[in-house]
Design a protein that fits this description.
Blueprint: H1 10-34, H2 37-44, H3 48-55, H4 58-74, H5 87-102, H6 105-117, H7 122-145, H8 154-169, H9 173-178, H10 186-208
Helix pairs in contact: 1-2, 1-4, 1-6, 4-5, 4-7, 5-8, 5-10, 7-8, 8-10
Length: 209
Amino acid sequence: MNSPLTAKTPKGQRRNQALITAATEIFLQYGFEGATLDMIIERAGGSRSTLYKNFGDKEGLFAAVIATLIDDIFVESNEKNPPLDTIETVLSFYGSRFLLNVLKPQSIGLYRLILGEYNRFPEITQAFFEQGPVKSYRLLSQKLAQLPDVNAAEETLLSISSRFLEMLKADVFTTTFCVADFKPSDDFIQQQIALSVDIIASYIRKISA
């Protein structure tokens, strides 16, 4: 599976984003097998040659869809963020963005698509794993490693990050995925985040002492 090519110009970035947005909508509407590149190009504009150059193929475009969802969580935006100078603030800030992102109908729909297409297209499951969970664990571990009061090996922070993000989803994601009319309350989500932050921050401080 080819890796997406990062656009170097604002125009190229807008073109890529239009293709990714259109691909997300088409994949959710028709499934991976039913979606075609012609459908995506018709909705986004552009050309087949541009799509092939920047994404390689349909699998590469699907991987870019997943990677973009994760980048939206961890890439710094133009908005003014709160000071992220403690373990608690980093975990709380990115944990909140992560959990709210994975609970979006779009994210739930893509996850259902991946499970439904697994037997016929195992390569998109691999793309999801690499560009979704693995990438999110790595990006969070990098944020934690930048803190002066964190003293832990890279592999340890990666393991901690994976457990923190999976802990956040406990009691929430599976129910949201399986029960059509379930929507967790804001209070429940905030309690889930606060509990997970307390547990993981305490452990990081313990091993960093």
